């Protein structure tokens, strides 16, 4: 019985090592892709942003 318990620990360790190597491979492949993505700008763009009167008032209050 004791041998089974030690086999389970060894199996879990091997699974952890396999998953760790897969995670490392995914991270190394995805890092250059993420670095090449365009950076977000400070200015909102697109159809979702509308500068309304209360937004202009808020911007004006920041410069005081």
From TrEMBL:
Protein name, entry field: Formate dehydrogenase
Signal sequence coordinates: 1-35
Keywords carried by this UniProt record: Signal
Family annotation (InterPro entries): Formate_DH_TAT-contain, TAT_signal
Keyword Signal on entry: yes
Record-linked Gene3D superfamilies: Single helix bin (1.20.5.700)
Signal found in the keyword field: yes
Annotated NCBIfam families: formate_TAT (TIGR02811)
Disordered: region residues: 33-52
Residue ranges of the TM segments: none
């Amino acid at each position: 019985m004791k041998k089974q318990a030690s086999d389970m620990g060894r199996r879990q360790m091997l699974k952890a090592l396999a998953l760790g190597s897969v995670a490392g491979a995914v991270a190394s492949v995805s890092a250059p892709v993420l670095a090449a993505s365009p950076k977000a700008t400070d200015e909102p763009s697109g159809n979702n942003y509308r500068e309304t009167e209360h937004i202009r008032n808020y911007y004006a209050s920041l410069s005081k």
